[in-house]
Amino acid sequence: MPVTNDDIAKTIRAHLDAHPEDAESLAPLLEAARGSDAPLASRTTTPGHVTCGVVAVTSDRQVLQIRHRSLNRWLLPGGHIEPDDASLLDAALRELAEETGIPRAWANPALERPVDVDAHVIPPNPAKREPEHIHYDLRFLLAIDPPAGNANVALQLEEVADYRWAPLTELPGRLSDRTRANLLARP
Q1: How far is it, in rounded angstroms, from Cα 171 to Cα 153?
Q2: Contact 142, 58 (CB under 8 A)
Q3: Percent of the chain with pLDDT over 70
Q4: Where is the Nudix hydrolase domain (predicted)?
């Protein structure tokens, strides 16, 4: 069953329970999820829609970053929700596997809700006939536990140019703080 606006509203409310300071920036998304027939899980919904990403962290506190080919920036793995995704977390896990080859079996969700939600503007893409729009990126925190001696990454070269494992301290402010706090709270 595809991800619905109700699923998105429920997830945003759970995030806001933990981070009420995000209420103002997420109000447009929550309002659209509650009152719009436009599917916020669809990449064609404008002026904004939901995407799902991951903060993939190893036991030695290294975070996986990918070099996005068309944006030419270091980003967290993630992307658009597909109709076959059973949940928002499922979409994030699928994107991780697609972009990096890291299987779901290596990823253990640290939370059922996103650790962070980032709203950012995506520039227009004439080749895809996409206007400028907003991505509300729900970022899920995953502990990555590859089998001993096997931390290989197999990039989806159509979208990803490179990857790196960066120290957790290199994540930007709020995301770094929230990630560290949730990792420290884990048993």
Answers
A1: 20
A2: no
A3: 96
A4: 47-187
Domains identified in the chain, total number: 1
Least confident of 69-73, 113-117, 183-187: 183-187
DSSP single-letter state for residue 182: H
- pTM for the model stands at 0.91
Residue 136's nearest CA partner among 56, 22, 35, 36 is 22
Ordered DSSP codes for 4-57: -HHHHHHHHHHHHHH-GGGHHHHHHHHHHHHH--S-TTSTT-SSEEEEEEEEEE
Q: Which of 1, 23, 3, 4 lies closest to 13, judged by CA?
A: 23
The per-residue pLDDT of the chain, averaged, comes to 90
Domain of residue 125: give its range. 5-185
